[in-house]
Amino acid sequence: MPNVLLLRSPSGDPSVPDKYESLFANERFWVASVPVLETGLTNIEELGTHIMRGTSYQGVIITSARSCEAWRAALQSMESTSGKRDPSFFAVVRGEPIDSAESSHAVPFYVVGKASSDALSSICHDFPGYPLLPHDIRGETSGTSEQLAEFIVSDLPTRPATLLYLTGDKNRDTLPRILEHAGIEPRPLQVYGTTCSPTFPARLDKVVDICSDSDWWIVCFAPSASGYALPALRLHFAFPGEQQSHPAAVRARLAAIGQTTHAYLRDECGFIVDAVASKPNPEALLAAIQGASNPAA
Fold this sequence. Notes:
Elements: E1 3-7, H1 19-26, E2 30-33, E3 37-41, H2 44-52, E4 59-62, H3 65-82, H4 87-94, E5 108-111, H5 114-126, E6 136-138, H6 145-155, E7 161-167, H7 174-181, E8 184-190, E9 192-196, H8 200-209, E10 216-220, H9 223-233, E11 237-238, E12 250-256, H10 259-268, E13 275-276, H11 282-293
Parallel strand pairs: 1-2, 1-10, 4-5, 4-7, 5-6, 7-8, 10-12, 11-12, 12-13
Antiparallel strand pairs: 3-9
GO cellular component, one term: cytosol
Pfam families: HEM4
Protein name: Tetrapyrrole biosynthesis, uroporphyrinogen III synthase
């Protein structure tokens, strides 16, 4: 039975089965999720200020689940401060006519992947009446930031345009460059930062110790997490493309959740990546690994 190691945090709700783990387990893979990074939110109060000025933007760009968490945290902070959910209250604060309070609902939210789309949809349900809610979610079928940028360029008719762009502490310039070339200004706001989890090496040791099978797939979900994880991974695994490895290492193959992570592993680390998901979701990842495991099928 092949082992699949997912370098990610499992589903945040322990009462709900993790979609990745459930799908692979159903296909007779032994699967485990080991979080590599710890993420902390930042600039939440400033994000709340941007939310209050929502109608000054022609759109919002969200490319990660962490950015969705930051949006929710900003609304929770506003709730604790105002204790109100009346749209007219927020309209008055912004200096708008009361009957324009719902106008921010028309602001499109551009996202990468269904996970971010689902997270934003739950915010609409939990915070009715708040300004700049993500009622209009677009681009969820985009598999990368580059694809999302191209989608925004084709979808957004207004020029010039300014979009609020929520970021982490590590971002490539691909999306901003494409938008700026098309006359769209992405206004970045960092809302989270990542560091390596101090418990990752110990958790990895535990997972490897309980698995006797030598058939391993290591799935990378982000360049930053991959970079942090590599020193500990090299103590246990030997990867395609490596010239040297630890004497006790077992052979493992690499899979990437998308083209950005694939490019990092290939270009920055010199690895051969055997499977790349066509979209950032469990089904596409499973299909890529199954296809690479059984190329003649």
